[in-house]
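CORE FACILITY INTAKE
Project code: CF-77B
Contact: R.S. (postdoc)
Sample description: multi-component assembly, two entities in total
Requested service: structural model of the whole complex
Turnaround: standard
Below are the sequence entries exactly as provided by the requester. Do not edit them.
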Amino acid sequence: MSTTPILNLNRFDASAPGLDAATLRMVRRREAAFGPNSVLFYKKPIVVASASGAWMTDTDGNRYLDLYNNVPCVGHSNQHVANAICNQSRILSTNTRYLYETIHDYAEKLLATFPNPLRNITFTCTGSEANDLALQIVRACTGGEGIIITENAYHGNTTAVAACSPSAWRTGAPPPANIRRVPAPERFRSADPDPGATFSKNIELAINDFRANGLKPAALLVDTYFTSDGLLDGPAGFLAPAFETARKHGLLVIGDEVQPGFGRTGVMWNFLRHNAIPDLVTLGKPMGNGFPMGGVVVRPDLLDRFTREISYFNTFGGNALAGATGLAVLEELQGRQLVANAAKTGAYLKKRLAELAKQHPCIGDVRGAGLFVGVEFVKTQDKLPQWDGRQPDAAIVTRLVNRLKELGVLIGASGPFANVIRARPPLCLTETEADFFVGKLAQALDETN
Amino acid sequence: MSTTPILNLNRFDASAPGLDAATLRMVRRREAAFGPNSVLFYKKPIVVASASGAWMTDTDGNRYLDLYNNVPCVGHSNQHVANAICNQSRILSTNTRYLYETIHDYAEKLLATFPNPLRNITFTCTGSEANDLALQIVRACTGGEGIIITENAYHGNTTAVAACSPSAWRTGAPPPANIRRVPAPERFRSADPDPGATFSKNIELAINDFRANGLKPAALLVDTYFTSDGLLDGPAGFLAPAFETARKHGLLVIGDEVQPGFGRTGVMWNFLRHNAIPDLVTLGKPMGNGFPMGGVVVRPDLLDRFTREISYFNTFGGNALAGATGLAVLEELQGRQLVANAAKTGAYLKKRLAELAKQHPCIGDVRGAGLFVGVEFVKTQDKLPQWDGRQPDAAIVTRLVNRLKELGVLIGASGPFANVIRARPPLCLTETEADFFVGKLAQALDETN
């Protein structure tokens, strides 16, 4: 199977017993329309009815605290955002080839959250389109083709971006010739005192390997939070040497903020935690709180160079409806100080989880910044001779994820070993809701042990 | 310049004189945020305020009949669609990994408009993503890489799809090795009695050329209306031999219905006019009437083969908000019989334009199906020795497009010579509105002659 661990883990097997007739009928309708691409979450899938704030409700009235979906950053069915969509859809929804105040207000407000020299933006509809456009820009600007990614990276679903996403590679096919993978920095499983230096060194090796094979490298493409490599929140600053190395060799740096961006890690952009500024930053998922939006924030000289060679137009990217929606999301993030809440509530959640870890040796590590927290599970039983307490346990994670769903908590997993539970709730999460999660996790662990 | 003719033609030059201070200020704000990608329509760009039905209104209260935008197929700011977006955004907007009635209702209702064997759909957010996914599917299913396109094709903006769009190729760069271009079928400029047979023969030559170069072909990718090749509405059935030839050699056929689909040509899907069914059909622009939506409708056996090798997931594709929006668009199309209106009002418009052509020798041809009508302009003055009345005149089209805007009509141009005005209004266009356009075009022509 070439699916990402996260999808594998929660993949629904339609033969699972115990489905009621109505749910089974809907599963069959779905399979007829979507075919084998009809993947559902959970062994017993959720028939969803509505969602509000950090909570989803199913058609039986059961409520679930949603720590899974990283799209509704300002809360499910956010009323301020819904009002903006409502109003705009009754007035105008057209493309960016006309002048329209809302679009320009939005672009300026968004760009104001970025440091120099990131002063231009091109809007797209998805994070995949954003990463694809970023690849087009770096290739046009460097004349190179080679892209360096991390071992277990995921950057999206277009042809070019899927080539940069090992989990989307075709089974058995050789890796794309223009891609080199480097191990993601790692703290839990490694005694390396300086993961930043190691990461930087590996990037240099990849560049040398490109050159030895007669391929000109173009860019380092990196999720600054290593989301699908199991999450790595720090140490702060460890990305800077990697960026420097890439640039020393003429590469550009694309910072993929599709997952960590928009305040999730307790700062507006995760790269700010490392004091290392990419040449291009790609945006997606939470940008429209469910409305399809993405974008590439870029150094003006690079966009200028690209635009001289290639004409890029995106029919829906930054249209009036997207502009009004994106603006409302920013207003909510700033007006309700949700980035600060992510930092504060995230720190509280991490503290509570660290306490829980003391009672449960199967929790090997608790890490994260803001409301993007990973809990890594390890085996405590079958101790091998070389056992050091860090043998990954994916099985317990599968059990916990499905049991937590029964207990009213939705959560996913991540990492090369599919053994890291990752919490990424709406940024409006309260301490009471964090307590609810920790309580249910404790209950599930007690049942498991 | 490598921009498409359509963008070149209406590209705004910021140095254009006569802009008022407020508009100029907005242009400068826009340039600061969007950089050189800040392309606007018209020499004096429109500062848009609102839009309704087939009409757009600027901030000075001027109204424009919109024959340009092919996205708002059921009318700008359509109230039924706006209500659906409003309601849904207050209830739920999450991805397709949960069961949700609205999504399944929409998928079934949409698939019911397709003939066998097109029984599965995968949702995306844009036509570009749809064509990109279609390329991934045909490559996985055939093991081939080669794609055959038409001379002046445009299929979208991702890396892989831009490679299939000559107008998006980098200036001076060699054509992509895995692409072969064939001339689009042509009736106005050619005495060919059987353009379908010629098209088919050219496809066979391209396949042979692939093989001679050791490249396995995968698919014929074709806009069934040849939208960026200058429009070709018929003769009905002329696509069938091309499809047969492609399949005889093991290629699959991707029918790009991003522009002609959803009833524009007077039938729900343009390929139905030719009684030739593609193996994959790609959807986009009008699908959500401005909400970013796209999709690939596909033979189940192909999707099955693809899914066994590759895991495809699209975060926003077919989410609850998209489902509710798409469903409302279909309800409007069907409930108000807009496809039949496109056929009827389109025929009326074509008749009126043909009458105008009799008085204006610069109109070389009027063609089209439904509300997708092309008016091809030719030179009447500088008759060369080999002059046959078909010398393209792009200059008059540029003048007409800008003058029509001043007269309250928005329209664009197309074709390899940028000399074809194309009308593609909302499908709710009335005969009175068609008369308005023809009257203003007559006035502009009288002024020009």
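Facility notes:
- Confidence is low (pLDDT under 50) at residues 1-7 of chain B.
- Chain B touches chain A through 102 residues (CB under 8 Å).
Invoice: internal transfer
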